[in-house]
Amino acid sequence: MVIKTGFLKEEHQIFQKALKKFLEKEAYPFYGQWEQERLIPRDFWRKMGEQGFLCPDLDEVYGGSGTDWGFSVIINEELERVGSGLVGFGLHNDIAVPYLSEFGSEKQKNRWLPKCASGDIITAIAMTEPGAGSDLAGISTTAVDEGDYYLLHGQKTFITNGMHADLVIVACKTDPQAVPKHKGISLLAVERGCKGFSRGRKLDKIGLHSQDTAELIFEDCLVPKENLIGEEGQGFQYMMKKLQQERLVVAIAAQAASEVMLELTLSYVKSREAFGRPVGNFQNTQFKMAEMATDIEMGRSFLDTLNKEHVEGKDITQKVSMAKWKLTDNARRIAAECLQLHGGYGYMEEYEIARRYRDIPVASIYAGTNEIMKSIIAKGLGL
């Protein structure tokens, strides 16, 4: 069972076929090994870049192809179909790099963007701290003006691409006394090898094993003034603007994961027999499959509409919060139902559903918890 993305055009379909062919050769055969090694090799990043699958929306002068959002949707969905551990590519393409392309200076763009598109630079964005997650205004990392440099001091955690990252966009306070607090936040681009920048632990997670997640440490880190992204004190506004797309990326991945899990389970219940007949012949199985298929179909329709509106530049803050909450919540429930329908085999590592069951819960936590999503929705209702 394959559910087609409805708003894509012929050029998107051609691109999708090329990406599928590439992943069948370069990703699917090796993904299990990457999961065991707990890391995606840098060589795969460069191969993605060589084929034009990194940052395709960038202008050609910066190494991109000037594509629309539909191409990003395809990349995120097809990578999710391989495995959720490839989430770092979506973060690079559609979350971190857009801060540079929209708010960066021309000098910064020329310096970094071509290498982001080629895979020679892997990016990360460092917002979360040990004591500050959803409350971004409460971060404690500081950057003190020292003339030609900022003296950056603090610690970040749960950073996607943290071990591989060559360029980290760090949310910090350049004015700790600002009132309200969020007005003192700025964004600094910290490069690999910068004095005072080090990596802590590569975090041991329940799922997403192949995706490197790390602690980042800044101990009086010297960051050149020219690495300030946009204007000082505007970091919070920049993050709020970009979180809309970040949450859309998460919703896209959750929907794709749900579709994969349904496909896996449909195949299993058709072939697995119990009491002399296929498991899929039992009414309970049929009802469970019907419920999941309906939720997935409705999720796909909503997501297609949302992606179309994003391409058109519409404000999707309210709807994307709904999608991020509902589609990740659907995926968590579908993962549990599908594992149950696999019986004891669902608990075995050799079956893909076991990995999917581990990987999906974090989607309801990162990019703003689902509780935060509900608060945003309620605010939009005037409550």
Automatic annotation (TrEMBL):
<dbReference type="Pfam" id="PF00441">
    <property type="entry name" value="Acyl-CoA_dh_1"/>
</dbReference>
<feature type="domain" description="Acyl-CoA dehydrogenase/oxidase C-terminal">
    <location>
        <begin position="233"/>
        <end position="381"/>
    </location>
</feature>
<dbReference type="InterPro" id="IPR046373">
    <property type="entry name" value="Acyl-CoA_Oxase/DH_mid-dom_sf"/>
</dbReference>
<keyword id="KW-0285">Flavoprotein</keyword>
<feature type="domain" description="Acyl-CoA oxidase/dehydrogenase middle">
    <location>
        <begin position="124"/>
        <end position="221"/>
    </location>
</feature>
<dbReference type="Pfam" id="PF02771">
    <property type="entry name" value="Acyl-CoA_dh_N"/>
</dbReference>
<dbReference type="Pfam" id="PF02770">
    <property type="entry name" value="Acyl-CoA_dh_M"/>
</dbReference>
<dbReference type="InterPro" id="IPR013786">
    <property type="entry name" value="AcylCoA_DH/ox_N"/>
</dbReference>
<comment type="similarity">
    <text>Belongs to the acyl-CoA dehydrogenase family.</text>
</comment>
<dbReference type="InterPro" id="IPR006089">
    <property type="entry name" value="Acyl-CoA_DH_CS"/>
</dbReference>
<dbReference type="InterPro" id="IPR036250">
    <property type="entry name" value="AcylCo_DH-like_C"/>
</dbReference>
<feature type="domain" description="Acyl-CoA dehydrogenase/oxidase N-terminal">
    <location>
        <begin position="10"/>
        <end position="120"/>
    </location>
</feature>
<dbReference type="InterPro" id="IPR009100">
    <property type="entry name" value="AcylCoA_DH/oxidase_NM_dom_sf"/>
</dbReference>
<dbReference type="InterPro" id="IPR009075">
    <property type="entry name" value="AcylCo_DH/oxidase_C"/>
</dbReference>
<keyword id="KW-0560">Oxidoreductase</keyword>
<dbReference type="GO" id="GO:0003995">
    <property type="term" value="F:acyl-CoA dehydrogenase activity"/>
</dbReference>
<dbReference type="GO" id="GO:0050660">
    <property type="term" value="F:flavin adenine dinucleotide binding"/>
</dbReference>
<dbReference type="InterPro" id="IPR006091">
    <property type="entry name" value="Acyl-CoA_Oxase/DH_mid-dom"/>
</dbReference>
<keyword id="KW-0274">FAD</keyword>
<protein>
    <submittedName>
        <fullName>Acyl-CoA dehydrogenase</fullName>
    </submittedName>
</protein>
<dbReference type="InterPro" id="IPR037069">
    <property type="entry name" value="AcylCoA_DH/ox_N_sf"/>
</dbReference>
